[in-house]
Amino acid sequence: MDPTTYAVIAAAVLIGSVVQSAVGLGVGLVAAPVTALLEPALMPGALLMVAVLLPCLTLVFDHEDIDWSGLLWSLPARIPGTLVGVWVVTTLSPRELGIAIGVVVLVAVAVTWRAIVVPVNRATLSAAGFASGITGTATSIGGPPIAIVYQHRPAREIRTTMAVYFLIGATLSLVALLVSGDLNRDQAVAAAQLLPFLAVGTVLGALARRSIPAHVVRPAVLLVSSASALVLLVRSIVGG
Fold it and tell me: How far apart are CA 42 and CA 97, in angstroms?
């Protein structure tokens, strides 16, 4: 990456990490469209590696109130979704993947913004896990389906449960992409270079959630994500 591209992607990871540490998700929504726009060869592997590291840092600060019973339904359902996600990555061209990422972000923003009430049960958790496996593996944006199910639960339960889900789910996706040959050294190097920004963002997010209400952060990240997704979508369509 040239210095300007690296600085912009690093800033996106920093902002996304702050948001995810504060409210439970955000790094994929913010950083995936930016990365796909500026350096598509890094997708989805580099951000999935970041998605593995971030919950480790989150759980150091906060590891109470994890909904283990819910994870027992959502995580197994992620496995078949992950396989579908690998098929998407191996099938789509970079342009088509850019379009897919843009669409996934916009749909996630629209559904999240409406704050649809979804019951937390075996069926919804399994469906969310399956959908998250597809979008998380193909685009590195696996949080929204799970977040929609848990959105009315207490904030700490959302953060910690999603941290465990991201840790295990992203690991499954990375193993699958490695087996399929869609994970490479450049993505690993990029993830390592982004680690300092990830760490700083996690600490800032932990501090921010003590003073900044989630209802203030949420609209801001959705607007930023929408803008970057629209730019990516238009560029991918026109550029093709």
Answer: 12
More confident position, 85 or 214 = 85
First to last CA, the chain: 22
pLDDT tens figures, 143-194: 888 888 887 788 788 888 988 999 999 999 999 999 999 999 999 999 999 9
Nearest to 165 by CA among 74, 97, 46: 74
Task: Give CA–CA dist 76/144, Å, rounded.
Answer: 17
Would you state the structure tokens that stand for residue 75, as one six-digit string? 């995580």
| pLDDT category of residue 59 using cuts at 50, 70 and 90 | confident
Contacts 24+ apart (CB under 8 A), 111-120: 111/144, 111/148, 112/144, 112/147, 112/148, 112/151, 112/218, 112/222, 113/222, 115/151, 116/148, 117/152, 118/148, 118/149, 118/151, 120/70, 120/149, 120/150, 120/153
Long-range contacts of 34-39 (CB under 8 A, 24+ apart): 34/8, 34/9, 34/228, 34/232, 35/9, 36/97, 36/98, 36/101, 36/102, 36/232, 37/98, 37/228, 37/231, 37/232, 37/235, 38/5, 38/8, 38/9, 39/1, 39/5, 39/9, 39/190
For residue 168, what are its two tokens? 């295990």
- Do you know the residue count of the chain? 240
- C-alpha–C-alpha distance, residues 99 and 162, integer Å: 26
